[in-house]
Design a protein that fits this description.
mainly alpha
Length: about 290
């Protein structure tokens, strides 16, 4: 068969061409994606230094980032001081708006800093200055009625030496010790700011049904705290993931849920009312986070 001989001879001479044609014409198999695991690697589009102001000079960049972070925090505080001075909101609501926003806005500035200890220390100067401020104003050494009105429940300067002081200490230590690649620091700040803040706001408005073991707390408030703390933790997990500081996984999601539930439970106990929920909530978040992360 001449035709067969020619074809075989052609195949024997150019087998690679023949096989290449077969591979090109054959459709590639398509495998369904697997959803059994949720683990995302850091995108290649960004790097840990992507948000730095001056990547070529990390020291100067951290100094500039510290100035920007301080300016942002001061502007936010100034805004709530003005709303308190003008009585635009109820004093307790204004206080909780400060409580919710300051720590979370400060944490949004973390990508501006470098990844090493220097970046963490310089970043912590912003809430660290507020520790000194709470001590001075709360003790009466520095008169600042706007700060007292925006951060206290009843307009007493001595209140700044408890809840607001614990708040500033928590954010400062979380920044220095855990920094932005640790889920424990994220959980502590998010449950303190968003969780505790929304618990009070929602509880006062919709908290008609009280908890059977604490008539000062409501079911709506506890649910709002667990939800706000958990969702904000997930949000910051994705936020820091986008800059390459941490991974996303179901293990982290489950850990954030456990920490938020535990924090909401402890915040609902009478001991948190007798002491200070900023203190008990922080200790709970860090202790439980150390076990689950």
């Amino acid at each position: 068969m001449p035709l067969t001989t020619t074809t075989n001879e052609h195949f024997s001479i150019c087998p690679s061409i023949f096989l290449r044609r077969i591979r090109v014409r054959s459709p590639s198999p398509k495998f369904p994606p697997r959803f059994s695991q949720f683990s995302i690697s850091r995108p290649n589009l960004t790097s840990p230094s992507a948000a730095m102001l001056l990547p070529q000079n990390p020291v100067l960049s951290d100094v500039c980032a510290s100035a920007v972070s301080a300016a942002v925090a001061a502007s936010c505080l100034r805004l709530w001081e003005e709303t308190a001075r003008r009585d635009l909101f109820d004093q307790k609501l204004n206080r909780k708006l400060v409580h919710i926003s300051i720590g979370l806005i400060f944490m949004l500035c973390w990508p501006l800093f470098s990844s090493g200890p220097r970046g963490a220390i310089l970043a912590s100067l912003t809430p660290g200055v507020n520790i000194i401020r709470m001590l001075l104003v709360g003790s009466g050494m520095w008169k600042d009625e706007a700060t007292v009105k925006s951060m206290s429940r009843y307009g007493d300067r001595r209140e700044l030496l408890t809840g607001p002081l614990y708040y500033a200490i928590t954010i400062t230590l979380a920044c220095v010790i855990y920094w932005r690649n640790s889920p424990n620091g994220i959980a502590a700040i998010c449950n303190l700011c968003a969780g505790d803040g929304f618990a009070d706001v929602v509880g006062r408005r919709f908290g008609k049904r009280k908890l059977p073991y604490n008539q000062n707390k409501s079911i709506a408030g506890s649910c709002a705290m667990a939800s706000a703390g958990f969702l904000s933790s997930i949000g910051f997990m994705y936020y820091f993931f986008s800059f390459g500081y941490m991974q996303c996984s179901w293990e982290l999601v489950f850990g954030f849920l456990v920490v938020s539930l535990a924090s909401a439970l402890v915040e609902s106990l009478p001991i948190s009312t007798k002491l200070d929920d900023n203190l008990t909530l922080t200790i709970t978040s860090i202790a439980v986070g150390s076990l689950v992360f």
